[in-house]
Amino acid sequence: MDGSLLIPNPIFEKAKLVRYLLLDVDGVLTNGIVYMSENGEETVAFSVYDGMGLGLWKRAGLGLGFISGRTSMSVARKAVDWGIEECYLGVENKIETYCELLIRHGLKDEEIAYMGDDLIDLAVFRRVGFAISVPNAMDAVKKEAHWITQKRGGEGAVRELIDAILLVQGKYMKE
Question: Is 124 helix (H, G, I), strand (E, B) or coil?
Answer without folding.
Answer: helix
